[in-house]
Amino acid sequence: MASFFGEVVFPVSRAFWDEEDEYGATQNSVNQPQFSVRWLKEKPPQIDTLVVIEGEMLIDFSKKCLCENSEELCLVEDDNQTKVCSLYQVNDNVYLCIVSPRFDTKFSAKLVDKMGETISSAKNTISVTCRHISQFKNKNTPTVPSFLRMLTTENGKNVCKLKEPYLEQPNIVYGVAAGVLSYAQFMELPSVLYVLYTDSFVLDSLSAEPLLKLFTAMNCTLHNVTFAGKDFFSKGNLYM
Length: 240
Description:
alpha/beta, eight-stranded mixed beta sheet, 23% helix
């Protein structure tokens, strides 16, 4: 398996090239979606920090924390006018890009390429994605409900004040978040990627703590978040 700008490429199982392979390649190129950018409000000339959120369990929580009452500034849509990502303004310096949980990650490279102008206009980019802790490959897995690992571009080590251990080999990251980091590395832009590993498939008050630390480190004002009718730090309550 190879990866380029976050796109997952599955190798052909046969060890030779034949007409069926050529036909399949043609079909794949025909079926590639086309993306378009549509600004709903005035386009900012420059963005200080662009935050990209990918992963279904992160989306509602991130919007609730960072931009509960914000309206969409920009949309990226496919040929069927299906929304694949949205841009919100958090404050004067921070903008939040939410990737749709229904987006097919095998088209991540194409989407990141379409987002290239916005990524390039940002002084810094912070991408956040999530994985179940069972996918974390290391002899010493932390015995906590959730934890963060990070990757940075060469000049992205100081993008965010929150410093976490670097993601250990042989762990891999794919999708739009990985694509944004790869794009930034190629364009020599400051960028950092955080991966949230959790022991469940929904955020509760404990597994969300690393995210709160990250959002606080981004100098964002956090909106109140509650879990199942109780205070946020009540153990074991699911995010509502």
